Recover the amino acids of this structure.
């Protein structure tokens, strides 16, 4: 399809205005083509993902995490960003990212994560921006049961999750924020959540939280966001505006952490 139309339709579907002020969603690297026919969707980008896109004939990569946050001073040889820029330019592939705008939008990361874990429960938005979502379960569930469900639905084994609180506790009011969401923990507490699910919890945050009645389940940054690609692929495939587009989920999205 026409590239300009593709970009316009994308921005209509995922409003960039929803982005946090510090964020940088949108086009990261342009290509020189007039048309966009094949898109590879992934959580992150490295040179292997650009090579994957090139090998399947994709002219576009869409990621969750933007390539650029801060101005870059040089394109070198020894860092991921530089290597990605080289590969993109070499293969004439454009890179677009949808970060916090996609976390917040209806049907985006946080809504999708909630639906995946809690099925048909009614998901509500608990903060002004739309990053903190919550559910009030009809029947209380044990935290270990919730962790079991999460490990079935996303590629994150229970052994990799961390819990502040007791796994045998029963909870009904649950809040979550995908990615590194601890900034919203206090608000989740104020909203009466009994369990807060997020990623990237730090030691001191966990220690401070120990005395509160709100348990924290850290399912990892990767664990809480790997759903991005499958969700966006479905959204694009289900939108009439993109019917001419070939959309593929990356096979190379990788959790940087290994288990010993
Ligand atoms: Fe993230």
């Amino acid at each position: 399809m026409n590239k300009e139309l593709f970009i316009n339709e994308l921005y209509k579907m995922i409003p960039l205005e929803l982005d946090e002020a510090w964020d940088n969603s949108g086009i990261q690297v342009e290509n020189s083509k007039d048309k966009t026919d094949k898109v590879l969707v992934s959580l992150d980008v490295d040179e292997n993902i650009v090579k994957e896109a090139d090998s399947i004939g994709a002219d576009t990569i869409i990621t969750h995490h933007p390539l650029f946050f801060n101005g870059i001073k040089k394109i070198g040889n020894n860092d991921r960003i530089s290597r990605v820029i080289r590969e993109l330019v070499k293969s004439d592939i454009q890179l677009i990212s949808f970060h916090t705008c996609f976390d917040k939008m209806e049907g985006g990361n946080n809504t999708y994560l909630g639906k995946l874990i809690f099925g048909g429960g009614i998901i509500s938005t608990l903060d002004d921006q739309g990053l903190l979502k919550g559910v009030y379960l009809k029947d209380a569930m044990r935290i270990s049961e919730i962790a079991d469900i999460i490990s079935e639905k996303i590629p994150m084994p229970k052994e990799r999750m961390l819990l502040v609180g007791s796994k045998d506790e029963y909870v009904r009011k649950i809040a979550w924020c995908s990615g590194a969401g601890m900034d919203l923990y206090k608000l989740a507490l104020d909203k009466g959540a009994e369990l807060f699910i997020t990623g990237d919890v730090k030691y001191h945050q966990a220690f401070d939280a120990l005395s509160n009645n709100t348990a924290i389940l850290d399912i990892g940054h990767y664990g809480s966001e790997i759903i991005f690609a499958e969700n966006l692929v479905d959204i694009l495939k289900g939108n009439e505006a993109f019917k001419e587009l070939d959309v593929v989920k990356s096979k190379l999205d990788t959790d940087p952490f290994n288990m010993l």
The two ends are 46 Å apart (CA to CA). The chain has two domains: 3-102, 106-224. Residues 106-224 form a domain with the Udp-n-acetylmuramoylalanyl-d-glutamate--2,6- Diaminopimelate Ligase; Chain: A, domain 1 fold (CATH 3.40.1390.30). The mean pLDDT is 96.
